[in-house]
Amino acid sequence: MAICNRLLAATLATLITALPAQADNLTVRIGYLHWTPDQGPVLSNVLPEPEDAGLRGAELAIADNQTTGQFLGQDYRLEPRLSDSQADTVEAFNDLQDAGVRLFVVNAPASAVTALADAAGDDTLLLNAGAKDDALRTADCHPNLLHTIPSYSMLTDALGQWLNQRRWREVFMITGPTDQDRAWAQAFRRSTKRFGLELVADRPWTFDADLRRMASKELPLFTQLDDYDAVVVADVRGDFGEYVPYNTWLPRPVVGTQGMSPVTWHRVVESWGAAQLQNRFGDLAGRTMNGEDYAAWAAVRAIGTAVTQLGQADPSSIRDFLLGDQFQLAGFKGRKLTFRTWNGQLRQPIPLVHPRGLVAQAPFEGFLHPNSQMDTLGFDEPESTCRISG
């Protein structure tokens, strides 16, 4: 036992010695901004989203950063601000900037993220952990904005690869009425062209019937068609999608936002050390980790990884490090995660899950890329006008 303790102490000393010299009592302040607009009533409230989604992931990452920081004279502090409107979010952001905070994790819609990026100074770094909109990665870019939440196109490309691999190439898509539904559906239409799928039907959901009573009558008629391999649902809010499985005209699998879904994170992800992360999150939050929690956790951990290596908390230096070749985030997804230099998106595998199990994880073998296979998910560099680095 004494030999083991001496070996552990020597190993820890070696690791700490290998890191850059640290300033005494370096305080790393990270602002967390959260605004979720009122989604309105939905037909299914069986699976309500937790109101603290994202925040609890950021808190866990702060605790993880402190584990290393206590040996290096680093003190990580999370300064959360939860708002009721975009204007309140911008005001909270300005107040924190005035108080000297320069590192931010943002869980808010794309319009708010853009407003914050426009209001940010050159010495401020924002990490988007909530908005999946493709426009933030293809045209509406900001040099000091990075993304740890996957884009809609990353999620739908993961689904498109899986459908192609299964040879379920003729698909019937149903799109809900919200802007998020339409954005998800538009991303999937792009994925169908990218991975050789055919939309044999592309129908908007326009009914307002109570599906709790009418699903078995309405949905078979709505999905009536000679043939298709799968039904794809674009219902981000959950207006009707939970009632589509087992109620289609043909006995076909349901995938998309309901059924089997491509997600940022899910409680059924347990491999690559993820079970340990899931357990620690459960102890902290008293619930399971979701995609927003994971994205906020990844954002705060990315900052912590940079500060550990740099020995400072300068936002410009952290940004350059995160976009550089030396950064890798151990994200419990089986691969080291890195940021795309042209648009600041965190490369990451996408789990495809159903409520009680992991089906697969994209990207899949056979979908090749000259640089990184993970760049087969989402908009690649030639498809984006963003050039935030260099």
Q: What does the model show?
A:
The chain has eleven helices and 14 strands. By secondary structure, the protein is α/β, with parallel strands linked by helices. Strand 3, helix 4 and strand 4 form a beta-alpha-beta unit. The relative contact order is 0.15.
How are the elements arranged and paired?
Elements: H1 2-18, E1 26-34, H2 55-72, E2 74-82, H3 86-98, E3 103-107, H4 110-119, E4 125-128, H5 135-138, E5 145-147, H6 152-166, E6 170-175, H7 179-194, E7 198-204, H8 211-222, E8 230-234, E9 254-256, E10 261-262, H9 274-285, H10 291-310, H11 315-322, E11 329-330, E12 336-337, E13 350-354, E14 357-362
Parallel strand pairs: 1-2, 1-3, 3-4, 4-5, 6-7, 6-8, 8-9
Antiparallel strand pairs: 10-13, 11-12, 13-14
Q: Tags for this entry?
A:
390 residues, alpha/beta, Rossmann fold, 5-stranded parallel β-sheet, 4-stranded parallel β-sheet, 11 helices, 14 strands, globular, disordered N terminus
Largest sheet at a glance?
Answer: 5 strands, parallel
Question: CATH topology of the largest domain, what is it called?
Answer: Rossmann fold
> DSSP strand (E) fraction?
15-25%
Content-based structural category: alpha/beta
Average pLDDT works out at 91
Please indicate the count of domains: 2
Instruction: Please identify the top-level CATH class of the largest domain.
Output: Alpha Beta
Count of individual beta strands: 14
Unreliable runs:
1-17
* Silhouette: globular
Helix-strand sequence? HEHEHEHEHEHEHEHEEEHHHEEEE
Amino- and carboxy-terminal Cα gap: 52 Å
Give the helix level as a range of percent: 25-40%
CATH-assigned homologous superfamily of the largest domain: Response regulator
**CATH architecture title of the largest domain:** 3-Layer(aba) Sandwich
